[in-house]
Amino acid sequence: MPCRGLRLLGAVGVAVSLAACFRPPGDHAAAINGGGRHLAAVLDSMHVERGWRPGDPVNWRTGEPDPISIPLNGHCSAFVAAVCARFDIYILRPPEHSERLLANAQCEWLQNDGPRWGWRRVADGVAAQHLANQGDIVVACCKGPDEDDAGHIAVVRPGTKGRAQIALEGPDIAQAGARNYSKTTVRHGFRFHPAALRRGMIRYYAHAGR
Predict the structure, then answer these.
(1) Per the CB 3.0–4.6 Å rule, which of 36, 40, 183, 189 could disulfide with 133?
(2) Is residue 38 packed enough to be buried (19+ CB in 10 Å), middle (13-18) or exposed (0-12)?
(3) What's the CATH architecture for 22-207?
(4) 3-class secondary structure per residue, 52-110
(5) Is 28 helix (H, G, I), strand (E, B) or coil?
(6) Residue 157 to residues 138, 149, 199: CA-CA distances in angstroms?
């Protein structure tokens, strides 16, 4: 769904248009500042490539094995929830929703309920990379094609790529899933959802970092 314009009345009663989705000045990703470096350090400290192992039942907060949890082929939504919890930011998570098909539910929640919790829609991958470089928590998500098909969700991590490279492969992300990566690209991380990438169905949402 494309970003939409909002028409609001200014202080002098003149109608002005505001973008419903954030776009960075100049449409290029900014350099990584202190907030972005802190975000990258936190993501690296979580060692997603060792935890949230696909096929294992895990504790969503820690990624450690938990025999009372649900064994799933991937734990993308649990890892995103864990990252948000590290920054005291709420996103739909257990126990409010089972980890099964949680990525689909998170994508819907971000659109419908996220704004009440401080989340805002982001225009595109360039804007997503820009905000992550400033230390905001940014997620990329897509729903599965059918109600019972798993979607995917990941955390955008700070990166130095330019606009052309982002257009080609998307921003950098950290993710759990069928394979876990502390650093990869949207194109590679969402490769099991090629239609979503090709059709521009991957959505970005951001929350101010803390």
Answers:
(1) 36
(2) middle
(3) Alpha-Beta Complex (3.90)
(4) CCCCCEECCCCCCECCCCCECCCCHHHHHHHHHHHCCCCCCCCCCCCCCCHHHHHHHHH
(5) coil
(6) 8, 26, 23
